[in-house]
Records
---
Amino acid sequence: MKFLFSFLVFVLAVSAQNDICLEKIEFGNSCSTAEPSIRFHFDNSTGLCMAFGYKGCGGNKNNFDTDGTCSALCKPTSINWCPVKSEPLKKTDGTVLCKKDDDCKTNGYYKVESDYVPVCGKGRTALIVKDDGNKNMLIGKNCDSNFCPKQSKCTMGNYFATCCKKL
């Protein structure tokens, strides 16, 4: 009986944790007790943890200090961009590049990969930040997520936005 109770508590805890990851992005509100900062949320539509500009107070629990914490708690262990019997990853304009699983390998996958090498313009490069001891590029759902630091400019790719260093 004790084992069954422990198992039930574990299942409920994991379920509650996953519910946090399904909450929509909330930017919070400005307040005098905290500074705005770059935070991370799990975007269920892409299966990625993405940066956003947090205003300092309020919001919901899908709001993590680091990409690593967000990924550890929310990110699936494997991501298939065109999962069986589910919708392919969509571009920001709503169109889909991979109409069937086979197309994903040649079209959709490369478009997603190209977002990780953004075209920043002459003399510019993607902004790399240190997060949990790792160097990562900041990515956000779109430029409206207001996640790029002042020394950079938001650039929209095929599926998500990145920050490019200003000259």
Note: The mean pLDDT is 78.
---
Amino acid sequence: MQSEGTGATMSDQDDSSAPPPDVSPEDGATELLDEYQEAAIDYCADGMREAKLAGDDVAMYHWLRVTREVVRKLIAQREELGG
């Protein structure tokens, strides 16, 4: 029995007749960073929400510090990309 995959391999993507991507490498990196940013912020917000619901001040402080570090790193990455 065959699996139901697409059958595409990495060598299939090396087709020189394929059109170039619509997005520049810089725009692609920015898009990826935007997606990572949203996921990281959502993750921190979920942690804060859970700590607040539990009434755990130590956990809330931990998530505030994690959030601050995430934001600091995201800003640094954004500056690296020139935006």
Note: The helical segments are 25-54, 57-80.
---
Amino acid sequence: MGKFATLFLVISLCVTLAEGLSIVGHSQRCLCDGKLYNLIPSRNIRKVEMFPQTPRCYNVEIVITMKTGKRWCLNPKAQRVRAVLGKFSMKRDFKHNY
């Protein structure tokens, strides 16, 4: 095999591996890969954060931090979640991560 053919195969292999890793790593960039909650008592919420879609994660993500320090992912399509967001958007502890 010539030098050109060997170089071509090595470059092709590197490109293929790089593309495969970006597809595999896609879900690792989302914060909310597990269960999405539809309702959390608002009196226990310390902070609400909203993360928009990105090239690595195609989901809009809403993450709340409870007073106990636990973090929960909320379902952005749930009507009750929208009500909680409306309540917190008037306060300073609502953070858009745009």
Note: The helical segments are 3-24, 79-89.
